Amino acid sequence: MSMIRILLATTLATLLAACASAPYAQRTSERQAAYAAAAGAPVRHFRFFSLYSWEPLSDSQLAVYTKPNEAWLLDLGGDCQDLAFVNSIGLTSNLNQVMVGFDRVLTGRRNFPCTISQIRPVDVKSLKAVQQQQRQIKSEPRSTDKEATAQ
Predict the structure, then answer these.
(1) What is the mean pLDDT of each run of 10 residues along the chain (151 residues)?
(2) For residues 74 and 105, is the Cβ–Cβ distance under 8 A?
(3) Read out DSSP for 14-40?
(4) Which residues does UniProt assign to the signal peptide (predicted)?
(5) Exposed, middle or buried: residue 72 (CB in 10 Å: 0-12, 13-18, 19+)?
(6) What is the largest CA-CA distance in the chain?
(7) d(Cα 44, Cα 118) in Å, to the nearest integer?
(8) Cα distances (Å, whole numbers) of residue 16 to 11, 22, 25, 26, 60
(9) What are phi and psi of 49, to 5 degrees?
(10) I need a labelling partner for 56 at 20 to 30 A (CA). Which of 35, 63, 64, 138 fits?
């Protein structure tokens, strides 16, 4: 009898985890699509003095903000793991330049630094407009019981 309970509990936990991860996966893919739409053509480097903010989009993609209205979409080599779970990152640079193939993202974990394979500038105004559209809720007033029976 207890084996059946364990099996049912495991099945229920798996189903609940799948249901909970579906909205997260959808939000993640929407964020990736918004950044991709706002990203320009690849560049070889960008000027870097300080890291204002950052947002992991996947284990192979990261958005870094060097100023509130200046962002860069970084594609990373396959050596990056669990980027969504790190508390902080760092960027290597040479003479205040972050360069493709040369500089890396440092995650603070014991694994190797993540190699930057592509850099694209992000049009932050365009990105914010796309994100605002994604946040819009389509609402319609509910019909009352009287309206439903009249139709």
Answers:
(1) 59 51 66 91 96 92 95 88 86 95 84 88 90 70 66 59
(2) yes
(3) HHHHHHHHHHHHHHHHHHHHHHHHHB-
(4) 1-25
(5) buried
(6) 74
(7) 8
(8) 9, 10, 14, 16, 27
(9) -110, -40
(10) 138
Q: Is 59 exposed, middle or buried (0-12, 13-18, 19+ CB in 10 A)?
A: middle
pLDDT on residue 107: 85
Identify the residue whose tokens are 């509910």: 142
Q: In which residue are the tokens 């439903």 written?
A: 148
Taking only the tens place, the pLDDT of each residue in 96-140 is 999 999 999 998 766 678 899 999 999 999 888 877 776 666 667
What element of type H or E holds 128? helix 124-135
Q: Read off the tokens for 66.
A: 């060097």
Query: Given this model, what pLDDT does residue 3 score?
Result: 59
For residue 92, give both structure tokens: 């290597």
Rounded Cα distance, 73 and 60, in Å? 11
